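Pilot study result, target chain (400 residues):
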Amino acid sequence: MGYVAGQPMLWPAPPDWSQGVTETLTWLTDVMQSSGTAMQQTRALLAAPRRTYTIQTLDGGDARRIIDAIAFNLGTHGFLFPIYPDVQWLSGPLTAAINVIPCATAGYDFVVGGKVALWLDEQHWELATVAAIGPNTLTLTALTANAWPVGTRLYPLRAARLQDMPEATQSGAAVSSLKVNVLIDEPCDWPAAWPSAAAYRGVPVLEWRGDESDNPTVQYARQGSTVDVDTATIYYFDLPNLPFRLQVQNFILYGRDQHTAFRSLLYALAGRAGQMWVPSWLDDLRLTAAIAGNAVQLQVAPCYYSLFGAQQTNRRDIRIELYDGTVFYRRITGSAQLVNGEMLQIDTALGQGVTPDQVRQINWLSMCQLAGDSVTNTHVTDADGVATCSLQWQAVQNNV
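Predicted structure:
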């Protein structure tokens, strides 16, 4: 029980959850883009993302001395790192010499052939290897050596290394806080999946509204360039002649189901390699007249669409959401400015009558990819609780 010479090293100090646990997933995408049209081709260069964790420990007494000894000796050596957001506590005692652990497995980072730890404190823990994963059990490759009481923690483990040497903050002779940056040193696969079955023109649509309480930002980027020889007029070039929306979307994840679905979304996007339709989530158009079920025209409040939108890429597709939850995706194929608004032509009728008071929102739809290859989740608690994440969407040229 605990450290034995010649056995794999376990990182023994759990995080100080008042500081949270930060997890970053980093993909690598080769983006080949035309400077003239902004059309692009992307290629994912990593089968699985690099995965890093940052934790802050708070230890006193014997635990502080144990952690100090490990930090002193570890250097660049590998060790086993508990996936702290996937902790669970044994609901019943385990006797010694068993090879099946009753536990939850859905949404946890258990892998066949991977390691797990039964952990009581910094000096009392045991490692085991997973032979099979059931809906409510882990089967081990060997019998356990020790009995474990109710409340023992069960952690999935991953091979890891320190990204840099830990920095300790001394809070007295007997207490210290250690900041630890860890790189997971093995591939971390996860099932890639879009968060809903919604699709438009053969491309997935994001139907996850996210958290709007933190004033998300929007910017319209251009693929422009300048030529300035200092002695003449500056020349400006914008060959695509299109704006590309940069949109921040914040998420608060509640419970393991949302954590699991969000991680699957990130793996489906694979950094900048994947694309999907992303609504603006704003009141972009306001319906001002009822629409008949067979009509292909929408009358909306003044928005100067005919003058400044005019069916441009990422300003020609809309999402119409009703208060009853019904959602329509349509393409604007023509427009005309009216005295008190705009008349928009859509590609197909809605198939049902809709009045203005039934409409919750009409959003622009943009074809987007992530603006970067790294995404950071801040785990406020374990994954049965709360995490936060911010995504930045980059609109792209498309011909769908």
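One observation from the pilot: The first strand starts at residue 21 and ends at 26. A full batch analysis is planned for the follow-on phase.
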